[in-house]
Amino acid sequence: MPPGRVPGRTRARRPAGSGPRATRAAPILHLMSVVKINVLTVPAAQRESLEQRFAARAGAVESSDGFEWFELLRPLEGTDDYLVYTRWRSEEDFQNWMSGPMQAAHRGEGGGSGGSGEGERPKPAATGSTLWSFEVVQQASPKQG
Fold first, then answer.
1. Second-level CATH architecture of 34-109+124-135
2. What pLDDT is attached to residue 43?
């Protein structure tokens, strides 16, 4: 007989899923992030130009309220589509950036919209653009240690 057991007595059984060994997911009390992926169709001849423009953006989005992450993804094969990945704390933060800093950056200095003469904006590198929107429902990171 195992130590600590009394002859003639049986242990009370716990209902399944209860007690210290039971694990339950803690409710998520915060909102998950929003991901925006801008799919840019970029002809091969314009790839270098697009990448240079993004490199020159000099932190245009990083200081925006609610901004969490940015990546420019270059296609390896089979497509001309670049992916511009941004993650935001909320849809509202993304919309605020779109209606403020992003619009100003795309207008260029002086707020002009193109035309002839000095200050003319360069031709867009992308021939098409589609915006995909996602809500983050699960995420993981490398284990520490």
1. 2-Layer Sandwich (3.30)
2. 95
